[in-house]
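Retro notes - structure team

What went well: the batch runner handled both jobs without manual restarts.
What didn't: labels got mixed up in the shared folder, which is why I'm recording both outputs here explicitly, each with its sequence directly above its tokens.

Job 1
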Amino acid sequence: MIVKITISEASKYVGQEVTIGAWIANKRSSGKIAFLQLRDGSGFMQGVVVKAEVSEEVFQLAKSVTQESSLYVTGIIREDERSPFGYELTVTNLELIHASVDYPITPKEHGTEFLMDHRHLWLRSKRQHAVMKIRNEIIRATYEFFNENGFTKVDPPILTGSAPEGTTELFHTKYFDEDAYLSQSGQLYMEAAAMALGKVFSFGPTFRAEKSKTRRHLIEFWMIEPEMAFYEFEDNLKVQEEYVSHIVQSVVKNCSLELKTLGRDVSKLENIKAPFPRVTYDEAIKFLHEKGFEDIQWGDDFGAPHETAIAESYDKPVFITHYPTSLKPFYMQPHPERADVVLCADLIAPEGYGEIIGGSERIHDYNLLKQRLEDHGLSSDAYKWYLELRQYGSVPHSGFGLGLERTVAWISGVEHVRETIPFPRLLNRLYP
């Protein structure tokens, strides 16, 4: 009996006759031979159909089969050094499952809007397949890192009654007879979890009602948010650089074919190992002035051009630390010697991909946190539970949030975050 396998298992069956359920990604043929580009979700592989070695019916099917038709393809696995995959299939039989007619995404060039309208089909392409496999590897490596370092996964709610950073960029909804918002961060709940479980992390969707059209922004995106009891500012930075190093090297190790498909310069990724360089906000402002950015002054937030200019000085991600208190949310711990800055850091990816992590030590003093809530015009009643975390055994604690899609974009080398999530939600796109 012929065994049924996936393309990714081909290396285990060299010289054996197998059957693969596959789709036709592309094909070409001459008079006596047909080359079928097969895909099955696990990978891409070439099937070679030689007229003299198969029935006339099978060869005619190989020549006439259309793009994205589905088949059972039977053949013998051969090693092939010319193939990026390393193997090909010498076809002995084809069984058509479904003939695809007028598949809209052809091998020619298509515009971005057309491809986004057909995102449900565009995902089948070799490039998009590679990006999704890299995304999956980052997720796998994330669980591996935190599980191996004593973290417990906790799932914060998506519907919340308050916001960690104000409600101006939140999606509002009704929760029966009261107001609710789609979460923009699970952080506050993760702080509560850290007081119960020590070291925790979450991984889930977050939402920003931000009317931005840049290549770095999505309306719905996924965040990895660790929170750690008894961890101070320096401890927090160490976890961040070790975690980012781990996921990058995991992709280098396990996604070499996908990185090659995307044309990624792997040498740049191989260099991403802790520790990472650091500059203070003060130093960054001085540096930007020296680079000719006279428009930015102390107290201003950095835009994409500023972050890119800073990152270009380094071949690793760089921490920008100690931002002005006025720029950051209410919960960040002030610098012990400077009331005008807080113990926070943004991690800026190299090659112009911008901020991938924001993190800080959190305020653990009850009175100071209550004062900060008042300063920001936030209701102490709405944050009563959050304040109580500082009443019952408060400890220094820190955490951060990593945006998955920006990280996927950087590691895979794709220009726009819309390609880093299966079905992107953008300012003017809710379809498909």
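Job 2
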Amino acid sequence: MPEKIEALAATGDPAVVPLLEALAEGNLYFRKSDNFVFLTKASGSNLSLVDPVSGETVGEEAKGALSKIKVNNNLRRTIRSLLGGLTLLSPDRTVRLSAADAVLKSPSAENLGLLETAIAKETDTVVRMRMETARAVSILGSDRIIDEKRQAIEMISDKIGGRDAAGILMGASATIDPALKADLDAAISRIESTQQLWDMTQNVWYGLSLGSVLLLAAIGLAITFGVMGIINMAHGEMVMLGAYSTFVVQDIIRSNAPNLFDWSLAIALPVAFLVTAIVGLAIERGVIRFLYGRPLETLLATWGISLILQQAIRSIFGPTNQEVGNPSWMSGSFPLGGMTITWNRMWIVAFSLSVFFALLFLMKKSAFGLQMRAVTQNRRMASSMGIRTPWVDAFTFALGSGIAGIAGVALSQIDNVSPNLGQSYIIDSFMVVVFGGVGNLWGTFVGALSLGILNKFLEPTVGAVLGKILVLVLIILFIQKRPRGLFALKGRAIEA
């Protein structure tokens, strides 16, 4: 029986696939009267007969008129292995690619002949490369000559790479020919060295990803702290309001226009900016403008406002996390060498950079940016030159709050949307601003990315909590040496 099955599979004819599948599943019968073989399907108390060559239904028979062709577990495993090889010859590219992946995961020396036949016929570059890799893995467990196995080790090391390749080669080390031990060890060592570099690169990426989140959360705080000297403890709640604005927009879209869901974040961005900018303007006009020059009272007032906003959100939306979905273009991930990059993180990094450079352009090239910088450097001189400093303060606070709101839109894609969302980022945001230099955008940029990368390199060694403590200690020590941060603002009033 095994020889006949292997002979059928060796033909490479895709028409053999249904026959072998039926045999493995116990659906292959022969008719007792003439020994004709049929694929069968249940049809009431009878069995419907299907011609194994044409695939056409040719009638029905009582179960007693037929006899099942029985197979044991060993034969069933052989059939499964041969089926994986047979689908390598399918006319469908997706089926061939899946078959190559299946052989790669469960290599078998029996599939080598079919793999080589399929490789010779394959015209698609991607599928061919996958088949050649599967062939190399299968060769390691075969009785092929040493030179072929040596070439297979090199291909596994070069084409698969990473932990998967190291696992395959380590698994083969117990049964490999002693003459190949040195080649195997060298390949494993090379893979591990390369993987260490990729792991370091992955940590840098994680650090940049975390840094971009910190940049989004801190950039609005940097301009309000720098221009107005306000310690705004409600800044985290602006981030939280932006995230809830995203939730509301998505909820409305789900109910009324589900086909627009992929555009939900684009719609949520201006909504979140306007909502939080208006709330920020109201806070500045209603509370903060009466407290300039009194930093302790400002800190206490904004802390009280943050508690009010948190409780208001709890009363409206409840204390539990709210679901904010990922649009299709932010879902999933893609490999890049020996690391994996998720689409949502990549888009957040790109979005953070876009916000940063847009704000930088506003500060450097617009009349409002010029007035803002003038007030930052010398408030009294700016006022004497006709700049309405109270309104600059008000619109600066609104702008900072609006930027925090669009930060909330981004954070809703990677964090839980809850009334406490802002509390997770407010301390880190202040650390970024102080470390980079109060009111300096480039300082905020460098500070956010530096702290993000430092955190991600410390976490694997000392843990997340102790890593944050060490970062805080390092910032305190740094501020002792440079009280104005990395990039200190310059101006007569500041230096005085």
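One thing worth noting from job 2: The chain has three domains: 27-67, 75-176, 199-495.
We'll revisit the folder naming next retro.
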